[in-house]
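Following up on my earlier thread - several people asked me to post the actual chain instead of describing it. Fair enough. Here it is, all 182 residues.
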Amino acid sequence: MRGMTTTHPPAPVRVLRAVPVAAGRGALLLPRALVALAATLTGRAQLASRLLHRDAVDAAGAGAAQRIRAALAGLVLGVLALLPVGAVVLCVARGLCYGLVDRGPYDHSWGGPTMAGAWAAHFAISLPFLALGLLALAGLDGLHRQLAAPLAGRRTPAWAVLVALVGCVAGALLFVAWLRQI
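Reply from S.P.:
Thanks for posting it. Predicted structure:
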């Protein structure tokens, strides 16, 4: 074993492997934050810290106020995460599974007049939006990790607070615009 070096995959490969995990954590941010808040309020500090930040140090080092603050940030970002979760679900339903949710006729559908053409067109169009939704969820997970940095013994960066505020305002405006469209 002497003289052997370990090789790590290139950075793009590591990112591609990390995005699905981070996107899953972002999609589950709202329930994780709710459980963490309940755990904090019932005195289960270690559980709350681990739910809020995967690199959390010993719960004794982080106070209840820090855990509550991180849980509330997770709640806000978790509500914001409902937008990309909805977009991902819509992309899967109306893109990847198009032939299962639309029975036709396909005369006026993108890629029509055949079901195969319509399905292929909707599938191809949904892929970039699906990727963007997953990246948005991964980004929300990373943003929450930065906001919960005190649980890992670090300071919360100022940019993270600014990005969270801008993201929440943009999400609220998008939601209001969507409601007015209905």
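The chain has a mean pLDDT of 85. That should answer part of your original question.
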